[in-house]
Amino acid sequence: MIAQEQKPIEEILGYLKGKRKVAVVGCGGCSTFYRTGDKAAVEKRAEELMSKGKEVLKIVLPFSIQACEIEKSGVWLEKNRKKLEGYDAVLVLSCGSGVQVVADYINEKMGFAVPVIPANDAIGLVGGGPRSLKETCQSCGMCELGKTAGICPLTECGKGLMNGPCGGVREGDKCEIDEKKDCAWVKIYKRMEQLGELDKFEEIRDPHEWSKMKRPRLFEIENPVGISEMMGALPGMLSTMLGPKPKLDE
Amino acid sequence: MKRRSDEIYSDLMRELEEGRYVFTGELEPEKAGDVNEPIEMARELLDLVVACNVTDNPQSFAYVSSLAASYQIQKETGMECVYQLRCADRNRMALLSDVLGAGVLGIKNILALAGDHVSLGDTPDAKPVFDLDSTTLIKLIRTVVSEGKDLAGNEIHNPPKLHVGGAAAPGAAHLKAEVAKVKRKIKAGVEYLQTQVVYFTDVLDRFFKELGPVDVPILVGIFPARTFGQADFFDKFVAGVDVPPDYLENMRATKQIKDKEKRKEEVDRVNVEFFTGFLEHLKGTPAAGCHMMAVGYPRVIPALKKIME
Ligand code: SF4
Ligand code: SF4
Question: How large is the ipTM?
Answer without folding.
Answer: 0.95
